[in-house]
Amino acid sequence: MKTLKYNDIDIVQENEVTWIIPAHKQMRVPGKVFASEKMLMQILKEDESLKQVINVATLPGIQKYSLAMPDIHWGYGFPIGGVAATDIEEGVISPGGVGYDINCGVRLIRTNLEYRDVKPYMEKLVESLFAHVPTGVGAHGAIPKLSKKELNQVLSKGARWCIERGYGSPEDLECTEENGCLTMADPAYVSNRARERGHNQLGTLGSGNHFLELQMVEEIYDAQAAEVLGLYPGQLVMMIHCGSRGLGHQICDDYLKVFSRVKEKYGIHLPDPQLACAPIQSEEGKHYLAAMAAAANFAWANRQVIMIQAKKSFLSTLGISEKELGFSLIYDVCHNIAKIEEHQVNGKTKKVCVHRKGATRAFPPGHPLTPAKYQSVGQPVLIPGDMGRYSFVAVGQPLAMEESFGSSCHGAGRVKSRHKAKKEARGRDLLKEMEQMGVVIRARGMRTVAEEMPAAYKDVSQVVDVMHKAKISKKVAKLVPVGVIKG
Amino acid sequence: MFKIISHTADIGIEVEAVDWEQLFKEAARGWKALVFEDSSIQGKENKPVNLEAQTVEELLVDWLNELNYFLTVHFWVFDKVLNLRISQTGEKGWKLQAEVSGEPYNQDRHYIYFDIKAVTFHQLQIRYDNGKLKTRIFFDI
Known about the structure:
The complex is a heterodimer.
Chain A: E1 3-6, E2 9-15, E3 18-21, E4 31-34, H1 37-46, H2 49-56, E5 62-73, E6 80-87, E7 92-93, E8 105-114, H3 115-118, H4 122-132, H5 148-157, H6 159-164, H7 170-174, H8 192-198, E9 211-220, H9 223-229, E10 235-242, H10 245-260, E11 278-279, H11 283-318, H12 322-325, E12 328-334, E13 336-345, E14 348-357, E15 360-361, E16 380-383, E17 391-396, H13 399-403, E18 407-408, H14 418-425, H15 430-436, E19 440-443, H16 446-451, H17 460-469, E20 473-486
Parallel strand pairs in A: 4-5, 19-20
Antiparallel strand pairs in A: 1-2, 2-3, 3-4, 5-6, 6-14, 7-11, 8-10, 8-12, 9-10, 9-20, 13-14, 15-18, 16-17, 17-20
Helix pairs in contact in A: 4-11, 5-11, 8-10, 10-11
Chain B: E1 2-6, E2 11-17, H1 20-36, E3 45-53, H2 56-74, E4 76-88, E5 94-104, E6 118-119, E7 127-129, E8 132-140
Helix pairs in contact in B: 1-2
């Protein structure tokens, strides 16, 4: 087993894909990083994200480890790809441990269609999806503007509000993390400005790395799990990646400010102001949790509406029946969230607040919160890659509960800055290049396509393989993009 | 003056100015350059901005967030800062009064390059160095 040096700190190898940063100075717990040696060297070289793992380990009430997934990269306060569980009685909650895009997440939908049959209609289908799902900055108008009362209902009920309004079926809720609703939500703690930013954005994709992708199942790694999830080679599926839009961004902003003002009141000393936090049991902590949960509910409703808008595109473009289409939700996971969950700590079951920032819940077979239909294989873990290569479906494993508070990786992570990607794209016909790769793309502007080009991202397969080897989440299927819409 | 800073996963601006007013004006110019790049924006109408904050750093974040708010909620794009006054209100407060010009968003003329989710407090510290005020502001996008 090796030891690597990082700013005079030893990073000790535990096994092929796990590394420990021993607790030192103000750290209350050790750091634990899931990565191959090659990836760890890369992480050490490219940014200060391991310093952020160390900073997170100083948070009051943190339990067991400050965790880093293999897709870790530098973020504001917490690293992206960071997981931290805090004691709900003695510990803190930090908006920086959730991120600005509260409940940014991924949803995967299966169809009864095979890619080869839909290929001749792909351009028309992508065009129709682009028309039905508003994208870009300030995108709005997917559904009629919500009244204050309706917005409160969305914030309280999440995806359930959509089902009550005819956007989907009750089965969709069974296949959504937390059934698409955090019951601790309270719209009373959502500011007017957050409401202003969100009231007309339900059902919109936004911009940046958010997308709606049509994908083909290219490879199956676990036949039994794939069968349970309803996946087979050649099948056409759809993946949606987006979050709580301006509403969630504003809530994070509002509470970072509140929390930065109370650190002295609670005697909290932090190595980075972006880690601003408050005791979970404090008034400020409870208010943030209630507002954050409301934003999470908005995000689940957002992805639910987008799914139903996309279904309309499929039906109208292909002229087939709902039965022929077979559109059904496989799963919806969030990867920016803080949740109260039960975990084993020092041999005892304990309620903790699990912050997952750029990390996905990965509950194993038999866990009470794994949906009934996936009890035999584990909760689906959805890991998007880049728009030219591939994304993955995995399932949670028992070791995740012992090693990572039931958490796995969430994506690829950038390898090139947006400016560098844009510079490299100059003089190239990226749409044609994507077409040659078999991907039809429709975006609001070429700038987004340039910034999001495949070479701007790390190879997500390496990230997924680490979690597979660590027995945290098991690979089930590889999906390749065939149609993309972006903001 | 301002300079755009671009790292692997984040983006920001570095601002240098001789006084508070210039610092806030340059930060607004930097925000505009990032969001709209070379889009043609006309100052057809004016909007007042009045803000109060506990620290000058918080005031700067609120100021840029206000420009973002005009864009994302009111579909109104900012062109120039016309009048701007920064004052300290006692020991524990800062105040900004400004008028900004701009026009309603027009998708044929205005291309929005970055959807700024928020202006962050990351490493945000305004320092006085060699007779100049200097700071770096990072955006979450």
